[in-house]
Specification:
The complex is a heterodimer of chains A (about 300) and B (about 280).
Chain A: H1 10-40, H2 58-65, H3 67-98, H4 105-112, H5 120-130, H6 137-144, H7 158-186, H8 190-198, H9 203-232, H10 235-240, H11 252-262, H12 266-295
Helix pairs in contact in A: 1-12, 2-12, 3-7, 3-9, 5-7, 7-9, 9-12, 11-12
Chain B: H1 5-34, H2 55-62, H3 64-97, H4 106-115, H5 118-132, H6 138-162, H7 167-174, H8 179-190, H9 192-207, H10 211-216, H11 226-236, H12 241-274
Helix pairs in contact in B: 1-12, 3-6, 3-9, 3-11, 4-6, 6-9, 7-8, 9-12, 11-12
The chains are: A mainly alpha (about 300), B mainly alpha (about 280).
């Protein structure tokens, strides 16, 4: 038996401790990524790791020619823009609010970020009920305000379905922004505010010249994280609209799953997924440096 | 900084309005769950139930597959928590105490697990699990979830382990404690709050999973988790919103409780720097 406490074998013990995590990552993440690239190059309906078809560019040719793929690119882009910008606005205002000093702010912080704790599927069904076309409360509200004359089927019309899905995602996504931005706000040294005050800076000037530059890095990271989340999200969209109507909420992620597990065209699905992965990779390059810094 | 009474009132008023709007969906879920079904099919809707039906939960738990789904979700979340925590504790300890070159790839793994489109990952995983005969088994969800959680859990735990002085362990080693024994008897008890926070984080993530369960467990109703069940209920009984909301409420309560506990860990860390 090896004596792990002896200096000679110390590193060996370290690697032994790392082994379970490494093996899991290799089998469940690294190998499947390679496998998915392989599947995207095969003309298969249901992937089978035992037998491999000859490689072909067929799936990628389908992808470039299909309207669904380009539609998914555009839906994803607009959804990212909508969800990220509005959740940033809500996240920042709530973070600024609970960063004030007042009694009970611990409770306020807890409540303001509560939707973070609601499972995505639950969030989706709650919003489905709010949007309901016959007795949903949103319709009732709009009827009271005379915005609409009769109840609207929000999830049946392409435009309203897009904003309905976006709204549900914002509700689920803003708390993360709020939590991160609050941490960012608290890392700004109080002295900077005092110095600005001594120099006669107004509240607005202090916000623009002290607060904003102070939280800019956190804003960058959270916007990228939220963007990646919109790219990857499946639950909310699937439960609300399954990507419909007419593909108006069909993001790349939904298209990947739909091709693979609804139409059983895993070759097509994998091709869409690989393109999505490459896009996510490019987006998250912004994050790589920061993570490497934080880990060490 | 002193605040005027007006300013303080302004803060509370704004907070009440904002929390009221942002939390309305949660309130609406709870209210709808307690309404008898005929009251849900009328305008104007009742903003406060005049006749709450507490029996809906008993009815729901008695409805056969529902209790089973809840049980499955619990099993999956607990197993994921234990599996991801076991591998992460070992990995985090290694990264914290040994100068390993592998540490450099840590950030990459965290990033991969955060960035990888999961709908892409389930395609090859479906093939792998089919081969291993795990499709339809709760283990498929547990293994997939635990692996994706492990990198971040490792990172969280490494942070806690880094704050523990290595002198304690050296003393234990000198006294003849084995290296594993040192982790078990010295490190784990000292880092209990960190372990708890990490465990809860893992629990929340796996309890909320929908994609893996929907993909790997689709074939048999008896293996569904709560989330798959709720999503299906929504499709089937479009009008029984009270039942769906009652189920949703039961699915959210464990997570909301965990959040209220986890938030304390987060806040205490943040607040220590701010409240002078």
């Amino acid at each position: 038996m090896i004596d792990f406490s002896s200096p000679r074998h110390r590193a060996k013990f370290g690697y032994m401790l790392l082994a379970p995590a490494t093996i899991l990552m290799a089998v469940i993440v690294v190998y499947p990524i390679l496998l998915s690239v392989n599947i995207s190059m095969q003309d298969v309906r249901i992937a089978d790791i035992a037998k491999s078809e000859p490689w072909t560019w067929k799936n990628y040719r389908w992808l470039v020619k299909s309207g669904e793929f380009w539609n998914a690119i555009s839906v994803t882009f607009w959804l990212v823009l909508f969800v990220a910008s509005v959740s940033l606005a809500i996240g920042l205002s709530t973070a600024l609010l609970v960063n004030q000093r007042f009694k009970g702010r611990t409770l306020a912080r807890l409540l303001v970020a509560l939707p973070w704790a609601v499972p995505e599927v639950v969030a989706a069904v709650i919003w489905a009920w709010i949007y309901d076309g016959s007795f949903g409360i949103l319709n009732w509200f709009l009827l009271q305000l005379h915005v609409v004359k009769s109840p609207v089927e929000f999830l049946a019309d392409p435009t309203s379905a897009f904003f309905a899905v976006g709204g549900a995602m914002i509700w689920k996504g803003y708390p993360f922004m709020s939590i991160m931005l609050l941490a960012g706000l608290q890392s700004i040294p109080e002295e900077q505010y005092q110095a600005a005050k001594v120099d006669g800076a107004s509240t607005w000037a202090r916000f623009v010249y002290v607060t904003l530059p102070g939280i800019a890095p956190v804003v960058g990271v959270t916007v990228v994280m939220t963007t990646l989340w919109v790219f990857r999200d499946f639950s909310i969209i699937y439960v609300l609209t399954k990507g419909g109507p007419l593909g108006s909420t069909s993001t790349l992620s939904i298209l990947t799953w739909e091709q693979s597990f609804a139409f059983f065209r895993m070759g097509h699905g994998a091709a869409v997924g690989v393109v999505t992965m490459v896009l996510c990779l490019l987006i998250s390059r912004a994050l790589v440096g920061r993570f490497a810094q934080n880990v060490h | 900084m002193k605040q005027s009474i007006l300013g303080r009132f302004g803060i509370y008023a704004t907070l009440t309005v904002i929390c009221g709007i942002l939390l309305f969906p949660v309130y609406w879920m709870a209210i709808t769950a307690l309404q008898p079904v005929n009251k849900l099919r009328q305008y104007p809707p009742e903003l406060f139930p005049s006749d709450p039906q507490w029996g809906v939960f008993r009815e729901l738990l008695a409805r056969q597959p529902f209790g089973l789904w809840m049980w499955n979700s619990t099993l999956v979340a607990l197993a994921t928590m234990i599996l991801s925590l076991s591998v992460s504790v070992l990995a985090a300890y290694a990264l914290s105490r040994y100068r390993l070159r592998a540490g450099a790839s840590m950030g990459l793994f965290i990033l991969t697990s955060k960035m990888l489109p999961s709908t892409l990952l389930v395609i090859p995983l479906f093939a792998v699990f089919t081969k291993l005969g795990l499709v339809g088994s709760l283990w498929s969800v547990v293994i997939a979830q635990a692996t994706l959680i492990a990198p971040f859990a490792t990172w969280m735990l490494k942070g806690y382990f880094d704050t523990i002085s290595p002198e304690l362990e050296q003393a234990a080693l000198v006294d003849g404690c084995s290296p594993f024994g040192t982790i078990w008897r010295i490190i784990l008890p000292v880092s209990a709050p960190g372990l708890a926070a990490t465990a809860l984080y893992a629990f929340v993530l796996s309890w909320s999973d929908f994609l893996f369960a929907r993909t790997f467990l689709a074939t048999s109703q008896s293996t569904w988790t709560l989330n798959v069940g709720i999503a299906t209920l929504k499709g089937e009984y479009e009008t029984d919103w009270n039942v769906i909301m009652a189920a949703s409420l039961l699915a959210s309560i464990p997570i909301i409780i965990v959040y209220l506990v986890l938030e304390r860990f987060l806040v205490s860390g943040l607040a220590s720097g701010s409240e002078k």
